[in-house]
Amino acid sequence: MALTLSLTGFVGKNLLRRRLRTLLTLGGIGLAMGAFVGLVGFSRSFQEQWMQIYSSSGTDIAVIHGTFLNTSLDQSATDKVRKLPVVAAASPVIFNEMDLTSDMSALVYGEPANAFPLDALQMVSGRRYRDGQPEVMLGDLLAQDLKKNPGDRLEIQGTPFSVTGIYHAASGLEADAVIMPLDQLQLLSSEQGKVSTIDVRLKPAPSGQSWESYLKQAQAQIQAALPGARAIPAAERANNNQFVKLAQASAWGTSTLALLIGILGIANTMMMSVFERTREIGTLRAMGWKRGKVLLLIELEAGALGIAGGVVGVMIGWVVLNVLARLPRTATFVSASIHWPLIAEALAIAFLAGLAAGALPAWRAARLSPVDALSHE
Q1: Taking the domains of the chain in order of start, what are their residue ranges?
Q2: What is the pLDDT of residues 53-67, one digit of tens each?
């Protein structure tokens, strides 16, 4: 117990000895961890928005042939899927990103007018489009940006469409999108007879069978009926598509660079601290402190800086997410709340970063001999 008190006492005393330096170091690691919390929090909110598209519509499986952005199936495959005993409903979908104005683009979905995913949309005004007609529905967010109402005209890649309705969706990605008849988007994209994916809703699992087992059974049946295609659970498709992976890679890449700068700041602080306290360390060694105890002291100081910087970073990240949650263009994609797993992850990374930054200064301090340290000027 005396050892613990002695170490913690030294840690607090040494960190407060150079308050300005400590505060600057905390600022550096805090900004790094703030970038981590803000960017990773944003990417995970983006991921949740994709999941909401499937969960709100009751889609259990997405059938694709290729990757998320480069998938193509024959529309006739939809009938084969519908005939399977585990399938309650199947709807072909085609999607693309298209220019709506000279400075605005949006996701455009093509689905039959009776597609089951459309049932999850809440019509704010107007009506649903009709198959075979040059008609579109706009998400309420996009309609607000475009200043469009039912009855207005919208030109997409040189083709005029009539806006028949404005809808609200659970996901901001859908609320900021265009939905039109499947055949119209196929014509617009020169993809007649082709679809991007087939959304599948399964029948309830039989009594006594787990959902996971039933889902795997359904995947096997669909893939057997459509050789070369992949039946992907909705959650997996939402979590592992290219949009989400790009957002995650950007978040981690930027955060890693910021964290490296923070680590260098802690390392510099600890190295300067060890240099300034050479005689003090020599005195401690002369009083019987072992090398391991000196090393532990420096690592505890570095770890404490990391943890404190992590706390500052969580607060900065929370502020960033709250700002993004209030900006018109990002409000529907970002949650202002920070989940506990992200907080724990940020604090753990900050602590480990502190230990890594303090490793070299701690090693140098532990190698000081009492005689050389006491004679240091």
Answers
A1: 2-50+244-374, 66-228
A2: 888 888 999 998 866
